[in-house]
Amino acid sequence: MVEPMNPPALLLVLHDVAPQTWADYQPFVAAVDALGAVPMTWLVVPDFHRHDNLEAHPEFRRMLTDRVIRGDELALHGYFHCDEAPTPSTPRDWFMRRIYTHEGEFYSLPPEAALARLRAGIDMFRRYDWPLAGFVAPAWLMSEGTRQALRQLPLSYTSDPHHLYRLPDFSAIDAPGLVWSARSAWRRGLSKLLSDQRERRWRQAPVIRLGLHPVDMCHEFSRTYWLRALKRLLDEGRVPMTKARWLALQTDRVGRAA
After folding, report:
1. The whole model's pTM is what?
2. Which SUPFAM superfamilies match (predicted)?
């Protein structure tokens, strides 16, 4: 007997979720909710840039709890989402930490520091009774020390722009993603061009991720693109689900095949 193939999936992921970014996201989330049952994965920062601690925002936490109840996923997205490590000492590190991003919090952390922050984030999720399966490093940048720390923790997955990784062994699963650089008009134009090309290339991919950032929501051009892309992919028959749910389906499929 031949097993039916899983339908192609769509993962809608909101990065940098914090009280101060919620105003940017709120109209987009309302538009997504109006489409029907479209579950989302929210990448939550416990204390965004060290001045937006979730402890001080009970209404925001209640909103996140409501999202969990309606079927969304919350994932841990760093702890402070800012890079406070000493000044870069190599050209590569300078590029990654000063040009590519200033927010690679876990890019250079040793194992002990990474483990402490990850445990603090896990403890926060437990305090608020939020299920937690995944960790995504800010800007997807992880030191070897962070990887060592993740192997010690009760998490199911992490990710980079092109893969999900099962923990603790970091086995890779292809999961291509669209993401924009939206801070200037020329970057937004180039991002749309690249995203259109990639979407065509990935038409037969089992899964496509849409990775949104708060800055995308600040410009009508990028905000409109994401909503239209979501609708288009849904109309093509892709099934929306959270990252944790999609990964669980892959695990079930592998288990049945074995």
Report:
1. 0.92
2. Glycoside hydrolase/deacetylase
CB-based contacts of 38, cutoff 8 Å, min separation 6? 12, 32, 230, 234, 240
Bridge pairing between strands 171-174 and 40-44: unpaired
Report the greatest alpha carbon distance in the chain. Answer: 59
Query: What domains can you pick out in the chain, each with its CATH number?
Result: 9-257 (3.20.20.370)
